[in-house]
């Protein structure tokens, strides 16, 4: 998020069906290029890291498995290297979080060429089996809301929670102190507030103090809220 705060233009791209699109064929390609694995070793790794539906013969990366994000980064090693080199050569900023790609620029027009490069790059790496979700492609400037991984980049170059999220958190904390949240909901809210503390510390501290608490951990649980 932070690398994009100094740019005026932001391109967001999304891979369609990201994890299921990454198959055992992609793993085999990488392993055969990186080291001398035996067929048995490749088979063992495939069955440990991928899953196969009964109706098909292809192993696919599992959605929700703790290993899948790490394995997807490994499989996209060539993609990330080549796109990073392109962006660095063209004074662009590139980040990727799983299937969410973000490329930002300080000059207009550069991002159209970047998108074309990404499309070309995908076609040159067919073993990945990836394709862009055009419905989620977003190309915006500072004139419009620039949102990335749920956070907002302000025109002042700062990362913000955004007005809607702040409004939601205010309502949630208010419900908590009124005793309207159960224990599970209160634990989830505390976790969200703890994360948001690293994004907008002043807002979270002010929100806690508004209800008479100095820290997020001092907020009541659902069972003892009053």
Structural summary, described in words:
The protein has nine helices and nine strands. The two termini are 38 Å apart. By secondary structure, the protein is α+β, with helices and mostly antiparallel strands. The model has no long low-confidence stretch (mean pLDDT 85). The longest helix has 15 residues, at 110-124. It is globular, with a radius of gyration of 22 Å. The protein has helices spanning 18-21, 24-34, 39-49, 68-75, 77-89, 110-124, 163-177, 183-197, 201-210; strands at 9-14, 50-51, 60-61, 93-97, 100-105, 138-141, 146-148, 151-153, 159-160. The strands form three sheets. A four-stranded antiparallel sheet has the order 4-5-1-6, with helices on one face. Strands 7-8-9 form a three-stranded antiparallel sheet, with no helix packed on it. It has a two-stranded antiparallel sheet with strand order 2-3.
